[in-house]
């Protein structure tokens, strides 16, 4: 067993029992470390990443609206769609448009489309937009949201 130092230190207050089994993650982890150029060892994540407007789109789509006092009017309520009936596609599209309304009204993005694909027990919302504030504003961006609670959604390149 590897040496483990508990968060509160090695003392009677620690009451820390290290895990005896390895856990297998059910989903890929998020970013666990900075992006580093292996040739120069330069920390790239300090100077590059997603455009701030694209980050706002991802935040708007993954935040659950009315889940707290600070997000009463921000985000989407994809979690309210519990059954995949005839109106589920319309409700999912509507939630994506509501989540992005503030960015559209400020003319930060232009919404190209919201596509919903579904089967018997799953649905996937794909949002396509252009970032009007970026230098490459003609490039279409998109993100699929199969599980909107998954914060590790990534932009399609």
Brief descriptors of the model:
157 residues, 18% helix, alpha+beta, 2 helices, disordered C terminus
Short description:
This protein has 157 residues and is of the alpha+beta class. It has 2 helices and 3 strands. The chain has a 3-stranded antiparallel β-sheet, with helices on one face.
Characterize the structure shown.
- The protein is α+β, with helices and mostly antiparallel strands.
- The chain is 18% helix and 16% strand.
- The chain contains 2 helices and 3 strands.
- It has helices at 52-62, 88-105; strands spanning 109-118, 123-131, 140-145.
- Strands 1-2-3 form a 3-stranded antiparallel β-sheet, covered by helices on one side.
- A hairpin with a 4-residue loop joins strand 1 (109-118) and strand 2 (123-131).
- Helix 1 (52-62) packs antiparallel against helix 2 (88-105).
- The longest helix has 18 residues, at 88-105.
- The model is unreliable at 148-157 (pLDDT under 50).
Helix content: 10-25%
**Distance N to C terminus:** 42 Å
Kindly name the structural category.
alpha+beta
* SS elements, strand count: 3
What topology emerges from the helices and strands here?
Elements: H1 52-62, H2 88-105, E1 109-118, E2 123-131, E3 140-145
Antiparallel strand pairs: 1-2, 2-3
């Amino acid at each position: 067993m590897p040496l483990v130092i508990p968060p509160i230190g090695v003392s009677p207050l620690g009451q820390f029992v290290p895990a005896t089994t390895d856990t297998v993650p059910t989903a890929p982890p998020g970013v666990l470390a900075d992006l580093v150029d292996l040739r120069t060892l330069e920390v790239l994540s300090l100077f590059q990443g997603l455009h701030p407007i694209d980050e706002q789109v991802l935040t708007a789509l993954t935040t659950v609206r009315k889940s707290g006092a600070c997000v009463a009017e921000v985000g989407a309520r994809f979690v309210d769609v519990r059954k995949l009936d005839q109106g589920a596609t319309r409700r999912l599209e509507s939630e994506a448009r509501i989540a992005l309304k503030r960015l559209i009204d400020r003319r930060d993005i232009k919404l190209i489309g919201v596509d919903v694909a579904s089967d018997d027990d799953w649905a996937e919302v794909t949002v396509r937009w252009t970032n009007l504030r970026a230098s490459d504003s003609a490039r279409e961006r998109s993100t699929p949201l199969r599980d909107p609670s998954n914060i590790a959604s990534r932009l399609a390149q």
